[in-house]
Write a structure and sequence with these properties.
The chain folds into two domains: 82 residues, Winged helix-like DNA-binding domain superfamily/Winged helix DNA-binding domain (Arc Repressor Mutant, subunit A, Orthogonal Bundle); 181 residues, Vaccinia Virus protein VP39 (Rossmann fold, 3-Layer(aba) Sandwich), CATH 3.40.50.150. Helix content is 47%, strand content 14%. It has a seven-stranded mixed sheet with strand order 6-5-4-7-8-10-9, sandwiched between helices. A hairpin with a 5-residue loop joins strand 9 and strand 10. The longest helix is centred in the middle third of the chain and has 25 residues. The structure holds S-adenosylmethionine (SAM).
Length: 341
């Protein structure tokens, strides 16, 4: 071993689930929500969370070391408080809360990833559908709290990317947008608030409609956004100048991806824009680690579903008849791949 070499990156990555589980557990305990009003000593915070004394100092100080808590002082008299970031994004009472994805990670995803090995050996999903023959969304949506949890999780994962898209995309040539697989109507809400002349439709399965309406009402946008129910495996899409799909194509195998792209083509007018917002993998498949991990996650959740590069997407879109294409980087690993009819 040369003196410049160190195994620490290998060890850090191998054990990174420790840090991950500390943050997920803090979210599960609603630690950041409970700390919002005022700083607390470790003892008080431990009592509020009903923790055994053995773990409290290690738990809270690990969160300090990870940068998710501030600590003023040392020892038992020290006060713990949220950082600016945890106060903004992990306080359940704020609309900016992104913890939904972490709640779902803690409840579902964490244990399913334990079976990455079997997934890689068999090519089969390792989640709730492992022992049933039903399609993933049917199983996920059988249970209302799980459906609400999934839709809340999607908001946390998508809000930053959707906000960036709404700011970066030039809407001036268009009058209407349909967000396919629109879930709680988040993308439509952000577009409607920023671009008042765009008529927005959020399209999703019938079971999702009451939840979408509830969220849209909370934002006072019920008169601006049309909630349409349908099944994109069976129905045509509402005609629109822009068709968006956020984290939709990666949920499906190649045949269904191509079906969805054809549906988008049919629903658009000449020069209409088909926008896919996902963790688009770099064409050389070397850099976008999160996009590649997301594709492994699609293996765990669906089996034959997968994430893709911009070049893959453009190849499928050309088959469908699209004329032009670009990739617009949004936030972190996420981009908008846009094909024009
Ligand atoms: C991964 S979520 C993406 C949600 C949202 N677009 C986002 O990026 O945050 C997939 C969405 O597709 C919807 N969906 C699944 N199957 C569908 C189908 N056959 N027809 C219409 N929507 C469907 C789900 O209900 C869910 O809201």
């Amino acid at each position: 071993m040369t003196s410049a070499m160190s195994p620490s990156r290998i060890i850090d990555t191998g054990l990174s689930f420790w840090g991950s589980k500390v943050l997920l557990t803090a979210v599960e305990f609603e630690l950041f929500t409970k700390l919002v009003d005022k700083p607390m000593t470790g003892e008080s915070l431990g009592k509020i969370l009903d923790l055994h004394p053995r773990g409290i100092w290690d738990f809270f100080d690990t969160l300090v070391a990870l940068g998710f808590l501030n600590r003023d002082g040392t020892g038992p008299t020290a006060f713990y408080s949220n950082t600016e970031e945890t106060s903004m994004f992990l306080d359940k009472n704020k609309l900016s809360y992104v913890g939904g994805i972490l709640e779902m990670a803690n409840d579902r995803i964490y244990k399913f990833w334990d079976d990455l090995g079997p997934a890689l050996k068999t090519g089969k999903p390792q989640n709730e559908i492992k022992h049933s023959q039903k399609p993933m969304f049917e199983v996920l949506y059988e249970d209302l709290p799980r459906l609400e949890q999934f839709l809340g999780a999607m908001r946390g994962l998508s809000i930053g990317n959707f906000q960036a898209f709404v700011q970066k995309f030039d809407f001036s040539n268009y009058k209407s947008l349909c967000d396919v697989g629109g879930a709680t109507g988040l993308l439509s809400s952000l577009v409607a608030k920023q671009h008042s002349y765009i008529k927005c439709t959020s399209f999703d399965l019938p079971i999702v409609a009451p939840i979408a309406k509830k969220w849209i009402e909370k934002e006072n946008l019920s008169d601006r956004i049309n909630v349409v129910s349908g099944d994109f495996l069976r129905d045509a899409l509402p005609k629109s100048d822009i068709i968006t799909m956020g984290n939709i194509l990666h949920d499906w195998n190649l045949e269904k991806k191509k079906h969805l792209i054809r549906l988008a083509y049919e629903a658009l007018p000449e020069n209409g824009a088909f926008v896919v917002i996902e963790n688009i993998i770099d064409d050389d498949r070397r850099k976008n680690t999160f996009g590649l991990l997301m594709s492994l996650h699609m293996l765990i959740e669906f089996g034959d579903a997968f994430d893709f590069t911009g070049a893959d997407f453009w190849g499928w879109c050309q088959e469908a008849g699209f004329k032009r294409y670009e990739v617009v980087h949004l936030v972190g690993p996420c981009s908008a791949a846009i094909a024009y009819k």
